[in-house]
Amino acid sequence: MGKSKLEYIWLDGYEPTQNMRSKTKVVEDFNGTLEDCPIWSFDGSSTRQADGNLSDCVLQPVAIYPDPDRTDGWLVMTEVMNPDGSPHASNARSKIDDDNDDFWFGFEQEYFIMDVKTELPLGFPRGGYPKPQGMYYCSVGGLNTHGRELVEEHADACIKAGLNFEGINQEVACGQWEFQLFAKGAKKAGDEIWIARYLLDRLTEKYDYYIEYHPKPLGDTDWNGSGMHANFSNTTLRTCGSKEVYEKICEAFRPVVKEHIAVYGAFNDQRLTGKHETASIHDFSYGISDRGASLRIPIYTVSNGWKGYLEDRRPASNGDPYKIAGRIIQTVNSAVLEPQLS
């Protein structure tokens, strides 16, 4: 069968925001299954995950996808484990409580495409600003649309890799884009966001671009920040048919605002100001079709007889989908609900 290239991808131990790391393992007679991916290791002292005198960390494969850019290549998402087989402290995936995949997640990943030479978003001139926001959102044409070639190539790569890739659009700010992914199961949703980010970052290497995931890269200006809105549901939300149940679940988020913000991404206070389609980081609110609320109840859910999903609009673009999904599951499961009559 020849040789195959397996790209092992993991998250490092940097704080407050973890980075992706990867390295290639060449194996013979690989059959393309997760079970055939060997456990591997890396130098944790170089990624802030171990000391030099006991530096080995273990890579446990958890998901595998075809690599769209390599012949006989595969992308292997892994969890970082300690040598004794226990999850490493930096391993948030292992903490998700959703073994039955009852929770479904749709993440909307916003980001800025940055020019390596100018270190500015595409479309920004040196020493100034382009035209104000208004014409960039879902735009077409070279005057307002920047980076489409990269974005289209990334979409094709994600689809070829087998990700459940659902769409792309240019966002409100100049040089800002978004892609959407959906998955049944919180761990799978997190895996696919990280693989999609990996493919996007790797593509920038040939464009002299880089991706900025900071939630407010343009600072205190009148330009939108970047989020990673989390659309979520479980069996209750998908089937209850009850406004009261939805309100009880939304209210369960109110007393744990700080716990959510703590895992929703660094520097999110710069984005959650109550402006630019955000709620203030200091408040909690929910409303039907309200993009200025913490939680949005989609109009689809209401028109479908209160059977659908919710959107948490607070997660930042640099947030870890594993941590975000894990915290949402914990809060939804904490809601005290009356038994529903069949």
UniProtKB/TrEMBL annotation:
Against Pfam families, the record matches this protein to: Gln-synt_C, Gln-synt_N
Where would you say this protein principally sits, based on its record? cytoplasm
The protein's location, in the record's own words, is: Cytoplasm
Query: GS beta-grasp domain: from which residue to which, for each copy?
Result: 4-85
What keywords would UniProt list here?
ATP-binding, Cytoplasm, Ligase, Nucleotide-binding
Q: What class of enzyme is it?
A: ligase
Q: Which SUPFAM superfamilies match?
A: Glutamine synthetase, N-terminal domain, Glutamine synthetase/guanido kinase
> Which terms under GO biological process does the entry name?
glutamine biosynthetic process
Q: GO molecular-function annotation terms?
A: ATP binding; glutamine synthetase activity
Q: What family is it from?
A: Belongs to the glutamine synthetase family.
What residues does the GS catalytic domain cover?
A: 87-342
Cellular component aspect of the GO annotation: cytoplasm
List the protein's name.
glutamine synthetase
Instruction: Give the highest taxon in the source lineage.
Output: Bacteria
Coiled-coil segments on the chain, per record: none
Reaction(s) the record says it catalyses: L-glutamate + NH4(+) + ATP = L-glutamine + ADP + phosphate + H(+)
Query: Quaternary structure?
Result: Homooctamer and homotetramer.
Its biological purpose: Catalyzes the ATP-dependent biosynthesis of glutamine from glutamate and ammonia.
EC identifiers of the protein: 6.3.1.2
